[in-house]
Amino acid sequence: MRSWLETVVIGLNLCPFASKPFRDGRVRVLVSEAKTGIELLTDLQLELARLADTPVTELETTLIAIPQMLADFADYNDFLDDVDALLDEYEWSGEYQVASFHPDYQFAGTLPTEAGNYTNRSPVPILHLLREDSVEAAVDSHPDPDGIPEANVAKLEAMSLADRRALFSFLSR
To answer: Distance between terminal CA atoms of the chain?
Structure first.
């Protein structure tokens, strides 16, 4: 996880907002041992409560790595509905959001091999818990937040297939 964060997310600057909190030690990585949806939702609830109880100066964001379940991207994508339901149930919608990463991530309307899908590919399925206030502040401070996804896709498309395979070697299974 740390290597992926440092090499891909921060190294390629796919998320221009990740470097500072990571460098400041305000990014928590939890490796969930969940094997069922209920166990994973419990981990998610506990981590959201931790974010709520911890000042942003100490904890900016949490990544929940899910190595033991949701290996199938369709199952993972379906589980995101449960994630949204949990946010609504605890009235965390609007306060927190969950970004998604998966080894087989595929944006709607794309082919699995398209370079742009790599922007959200990770070593294992991940739920990235973000504070809405932090997202808004980051977006407000960026000169072109709407251009980030296009720039990321262009960056990955400009790489050779060999370079992309080397950078994302963790995807070979």
So the answer is: 16
Q: Residue 30's beta-bridge partner residues?
A: 64
Structure tokens at 50: 């931790």
Kindly tell me if the per-residue pLDDT of 143 is higher than 70: yes
pLDDT per position as a tens digit, 83-110: 999 999 999 999 999 999 999 999 999 9
CB 12 within 8 A of CB 155: yes
